[in-house]
Design goal:
Layout lengths: L12 E2 L6 E2 L23 H10 L5 E9 L15 H6 L2 E9 L2 E8 L2 E8 L2 E6 L4 E6 L18 H9 L6 E11 L2 E10 L6 E9 L5 E8 L7 E9 L5 H4 L8 E6 L16 E3 L6 E4 L21 H11 L2 E5 L2 E7 L4 E5 L4 E4 L3 H11 L9
Parallel strand pairs: 8-14
Antiparallel strand pairs: 1-2, 3-4, 3-13, 4-5, 5-6, 6-7, 7-8, 9-10, 10-11, 11-12, 12-13, 15-16, 16-20, 17-18, 18-19, 19-20
């Protein structure tokens, strides 16, 4: 399922090309119910299921998606604030979905006493934040489909997560089919992807595929040797019906502050986008994200940091994470390492940050490669 142009202003966890790296929110808990019986479905080979997902077109639907994670992070301050970085790293997020087509859908992200909505209607999309009663109106290029993205606190949909993980399928991946499952009361196949390289912290990725239309209903990521998922996103309820027109219509509420952005032209005034600041090293399951030096800067005294994520509560969260990191050194230099069951983070003393669902040795190789730009060898 397609989304709208990138609106997120927070660091979130996602899975580009099979490696879990910082690009979106991580969540805690296990709220998605799993199958209690194996439903009967016609037999499918892994190749058939891969082809079915690749060829599937998301039909109109309404439903509820829940995204959860359990990464073993240290205790973080500020989790009671639903808009804080701590809440995004340790909480649980739900999104209601009304989908008629790539340019006609609505995503609603409820929070306590607030809600963020994204509505796409043809060549126009809106993001509404109820707390500030603020609306951003986006003019979309007529010749392009709306690009993948989320409102500020929205999780990935199962379709988006599956598309990103399936990019890792190839010679480095073992593909199999597990017992059938039920997700959101629908019978589904269970496709299992497992990286062959032991340097990946990912043990396997399980994708539940609707038995009737091939639409991914749930994605679960397991760390190596783990019996419960460290990350999952899936539908808790879904109906393949066309949304009511009222659910896809939007008008700015009275008194709302409205700003406009034309995505077909130049960036709006005041934009601070720096596309060259973030890059990746390696590929597939061993992808490492190289973050900008200002992206994880914790200010002394906890004040705001222009251009970084560490301000207010975020600075306290970052300091808590850094205090649990272990000092490390190597040919690449020195820094601090934070490792969980599924994610490793290396923060070098030179100001660079490397993140990936990989063993620390892969991060060290990436740090050494980044220090030698002329080198093209992936870790």
């Amino acid at each position: 399922m397609t989304g709208v142009p990138k609106l997120s202003r927070r660091t979130r966890w996602a899975i580009p090309a099979g490696a879990l790296v910082i690009t979106g929110a991580v969540l805690a808990g296990s709220l998605i119910s799993v199958a209690q019986a194996s439903p009967g479905l016609p037999s499918r080979t892994p190749a058939q299921l891969l082809a079915q997902v690749a060829d599937s077109v998301t039909p109109p639907l309404t439903g509820t998606v829940v995204e959860t994670t359990s990464l073993g992070l240290p205790s973080l301050p500020g989790t009671a604030n639903p808009t804080s970085i701590a809440s995004l790293l340790t909480g649980s997020h739900t999104v209601r979905v009304w989908y008629s087509g790539p340019r006609h859908f609505r995503l609603a992200v409820p929070e306590p006493l607030s809600e963020t909505d994204v509505i796409a209607d043809g060549n126009t999309a809106w993001q509404w934040e109820s707390t500030a009663n603020a609306v951003t109106e986006y003019s979309l290029p007529a010749h392009q489909a709306a690009q993948q993205a989320q409102p500020t606190t929205a999780p990935l949909t199962p379709q988006q997560a599956a598309q990103q993980v399936l990019a890792a399928v190839g010679p480095t991946t073992t593909v199999s089919v597990d017992s059938n499952v039920r997700v959101a009361h629908r019978p589904a196949y269970e496709l299992v992807l497992a990286p062959k390289d032991s340097r990946s912290l990912v043990g396997q990725v399980q994708i539940a595929i609707d038995g009737r239309n091939g639409v991914p209903l749930r994605l679960q990521v397991y760390a190596r040797n783990a019996s419960t998922p460290a990350f999952q996103v899936g539908y808790t309820s879904i109906q393949f019906v066309s949304p009511a027109p009222a659910d896809l219509s939007f008008s700015p509420p009275p008194g709302a502050k409205v700003s406009q952005v034309n995505l077909g032209g130049q960036q709006p005034s005041g934009s601070s986008s720096q596309p060259g600041d973030v890059s990746t090293i390696g590929s597939g399951w061993l992808t490492v994200l190289d973050l900008p030096s200002a992206g994880l800067t914790a200010p002394s005294g906890g004040g705001p940091t222009p251009g970084g994520i560490a301000s207010g509560d975020s600075a306290a969260v970052l300091n808590a994470l850094l205090s649990s990191a272990t000092p490390v050194t190597g040919a690449w230099g020195s820094g601090r390492l934070l490792q969980t069951s599924l994610v490793s983070v290396l923060i070098t003393d030179s100001g660079r940050t490397f993140v990936g669902a990989v063993q620390p040795s892969v991060l060290y190789a990436a740090a050494g490669q980044a220090a030698t730009p002329s080198s093209s060898t992936a870790p």
